[in-house]
Amino acid sequence: MARVADRLRDKKWARGMLSGLAGVMLLAAVGVLGYPFYTNLYQDRVQGDLDGQLASPELEEAYRAGAVGEGESLTRLMIPSLDVDVVVVEGTSPSALRAGAGHYPESPLPCEPGNVAIAGHRTTYGRPFHNLDLLKPGDEIILETPVGRCTYSVNKAPFVVQPNDFSVLNSTPTGTLTLTTCHPKNSAAQRLIVQADLE
To answer: Are 179 and 193 in contact (CB under 8 A)?
Structure first.
């Protein structure tokens, strides 16, 4: 250590390099810590816009016609036990999911028979599915659409699948709701799944 200190005293370029490295590390730390904060602020603003859109007569008409566009409001998802209240948009593209949660367009519309599937962020963009792993059988999930409201009941404990396992999105003969999110937190290595039955 004494030799390093002597060299830093003697070599101005070494001190400059060390200062530069410290600056880069500080900027990286601010970026890593600041990114989730930024995405949460962004999602909060987007949710305000989507909330107003959900109540519009134009959206009701588009919903009834099955013509809700990607990124537009589709339904409000509420999980009372987790204090979740988020407007879900149509689509699961990266831009659509900046709203926080998105409906898989190939799945039925909310409250209809079949397997309604919704993806949501766990650590960014408002992190609506942050505590999805805490859900228990019997917990309620409420979907409020422009044309009505329905309640689903969680039918089993949350479980984990590989990211390429799409079997959880398969059609079902009755009313099912499937929620998907990344697992573990701050990683996309796996998917956490919650399934619920239409009451």
So the answer is: yes
Helices (H), 55-185: 57-64
Sign of CA dihedral 48, 59, 83, 104: negative
Q: What are phi and psi of 177, to 5 degrees?
A: -120, 130
39-198 has which CATH code? 2.40.260.10
Q: What local confidence, expressed as pLDDT, does residue 154 receive?
A: 98
Euclidean distance between CA atoms 73 and 51, whole angstroms: 8
Strands 101-103 and 114-120: antiparallel
- Dihedral-angle region of residue 118 (phi above 0 means left; psi in -120 to 50 means alpha; beta otherwise): beta
Per-residue pLDDT of 4-41, as tens digits, reads 556 656 666 655 666 666 666 666 555 555 556 666 66
Residue 198 CB coordination number (10 Å)? 20
Give the Cα separation of 86 and 68 in Å (integer): 17
Residue 138 identity: G
The CA distance from 121 to 103, in Å, is: 12
